[in-house]
Design goal:
Strand order of the largest sheet: 2-1-3-4-5
Oligomer: single chain
CATH topology of the domain at 29-223: Rossmann fold
Number of strands: 14
Number of helices: 13
Structural class: alpha/beta
Order of helices and strands: EHHEHEHEHEHHEEEEHEEEHEHHHHE
Strand content: 15-25%
Length: 417
């Protein structure tokens, strides 16, 4: 028997929201900025996937600006002006601190310069037209794999920097996303469940795999105000009718089978939820991603038997009638579902887009002013190349959007005694 909805909200206390409503507005440009962890293009792809397929914002554009080895000092001194502002972002997320902590115990200078550089970053982004900012803390290092210094000591350094980021967000009227606390919590739970040798982060203890990045994406999406209501399909067996919320169009309903055409997708995962691999599915049991951000709900009323089988795609699950009447979250119970294939196609297109952004920002836009100074007679030509690169990136984003097509699928409900 599966758990019923409304599901108990298990919101992590570490996710601090500065507002109840969505930060994102129609036609916003969201810039996802950070160090090499952002440049891995995993949590940033998860975020863009979610905003394209699960909770769409009309006219939204998303781009990532990760840079290996970056600290806030480099970001505010050079990268904001050259890399980020050409995209004219209205909302910016930042994820710095891993390198700013210097891989050492916390000291006064570390805290001082982190505060100064984060303040300078806020001011420069605001001057460049940013409307809102989500200041993300650094995540954590792996308690098993991190070897530079004691992981306990360095996680305390990262927690101290987290406190500075939260303080500056509050003082500047911005949004704070605590990545450190939920990642520490999920890591502890995963290691307790999977054994002492389970590595939650990655081989170097710094750069997460898909599991850790999903927790990061969760923290940012929650802080952006995403509400997780993907869709609800309501079936009245006694009245022989079915309805869907916006994005879930009922094409037909007969004999307990509802055919839908959906333009809002549930978030889809990779891996086995019961195996201790570094996959998105393997950590779902340790934090409430599906409860908070991924509710694709089936409600069935008028069932005259004690239970029923529900078939969605290639899988069938059994539910108690009482649970179906309250609502069950299909996205949590059917990890492989009719959306999985198309979700993967969009995900691949987003990865291709963000890969171009790394090359465009780091190898060309970042050096554009120096190139113009070196060959001023070619300034116009260089501007044309920059414009062509920006257009290529915009075209790739549009290509990913185009792949978010209506998915037709069926849900079959079979009463059982």
């Amino acid at each position: 028997m599966k758990s019923a909805l409304p599901l108990l909200s298990l919101l992590l206390a570490s996710i601090v929201l500065s507002q109840a409503d969505s930060v994102l507005q129609p036609n916003d440009v969201l810039a996802i900025c950070g160090d090499s962890i952002t440049q891995q293009k995993i949590y940033s792809v998860d975020m863009e996937d979610y905003l394209l397929m699960c909770q769409q914002v009309p006219g939204l554009r998303v781009a990532q600006f990760g840079w290996g080895g970056a600290q806030l000092g480099l970001f505010q001194l050079t990268q904001i002006k050259s890399d980020v502002l050409p995209f004219k972002p209205t909302v910016v997320t930042t994820c710095y601190g891993m390198n700013d902590g210097q891989y050492a115990p916390m000291n006064d200078n570390t805290g001082k310069y982190y505060r100064l550089n984060l303040t300078a970053s806020i001011n420069k982004l605001k001057a460049g037209g940013m409307r809102q900012m989500v200041i993300g803390s650094a995540g954590c290092v792996d308690t098993k794999a991190f070897k530079r210094i004691s992981p306990v000591v360095y996680n305390q350094t990262l927690d101290d920097l987290r406190g500075i980021a939260q303080d500056l967000a509050q003082k500047n009227g911005l949004v704070f996303a605590d990545l450190h606390t939920p990642m520490m919590d999920v890591m502890a739970k995963a290691q307790a469940a999977y054994g002492k040798d389970y590595v939650f982060i990655g081989g170097d203890g710094i750069h997460p795999g898909p599991a850790g990045h999903l927790v990061m994406a969760y923290a940012f999406l929650k802080s952006l105000g995403c509400d997780g209501a993907i869709g609800t399909i309501s079936v009245d067996l006694a009245g022989n009718q079915a309805t869907g919320t916006p994005g879930q169009k009922v094409v037909s309903f007969a004999n307990g089978t509802v055919t839908l055409e959906s333009t809002r997708y549930p978030f889809c995962f990779q891996g086995d939820p019961d195996k201790p691999a570094n996959t998105t599915a393997s950590v779902l049991k340790f934090f409430p991603f599906n409860d908070d951000l991924n509710r694709y709900v089936l409600v069935v009323k008028g069932l005259k038997t004690a239970k029923a089988k529900v078939t969605w795609g290639k899988e069938t699950k059994e539910y108690a009638a009482a649970d179906l009447e309250k609502g069950v979250n299909l996205a949590a119970d059917f990890l492989a579902n009719p959306f999985s294939d198309q979700f993967a196609k969009v995900d691949a297109a987003v990865q291709a887009q963000q890969a171009v952004e790394t090359t465009l920002a780091q190898q060309f836009l970042h050096n554009l002013d120096n190139l113009k100074a070196m060959i001023p007679e070619e300034a116009a030509a260089l501007d044309n190349i920059a414009a062509a690169g920006m257009k290529k990136d915009a075209d790739l984003f549009a290509a990913a959007q185009t792949l978010v097509i209506p998915v037709q699928h069926t849900i079959k409900i079979e009463p059982e005694s």
